[in-house]
Design goal:
By secondary structure, the protein is an alpha+beta fold. The chain has 3 helices and 4 strands, in the order H-E-H-E-H-E-E. A hairpin with a 6-residue loop joins strand 3 and strand 4. The protein starts with a helix and ends in an 11-residue tail after the last strand.
């Protein structure tokens, strides 16, 4: 069975450009979600440089700009697309990511 990390590296290597991903968490209200977001970002960053994460603590100016009103929320290339994931892509949900 092929190594999942190797498969993901190959998949991400085919991305035509860097993809910005904005992750909104609230460390004061949900430190566990923030820690899980940190772990997820670290895991993906170790696999590919083509995903550029931007971690936001709380509902900052970027959240207002893109109408984010709850945490955790993940936005995929919000300058180009309206793709929003409410929650964190963990466990089986990571397949969606």
């Amino acid at each position: 069975m092929p190594d999942v990390t190797s498969q993901l590296r190959e998949l991400f290597a085919r991305l035509p450009q860097e993809i910005p991903v904005h992750v909104f968490v609230d460390r004061s209200r949900s430190p566990e979600s923030a820690r899980l977001a940190d772990d997820f970002i670290a895991a993906v960053t170790a696999i590919t440089p083509k995903i550029a994460f931007h971690l936001h603590d709380g509902l900052d100016a970027a959240a207002r700009r893109w109408n984010v009103d709850r945490t955790p929320t993940v936005l995929f290339a919000p300058e180009r697309y309206s793709i929003r994931y409410l929650g964190l892509p963990l466990g089986e949900e990571s397949r969606t990511f």
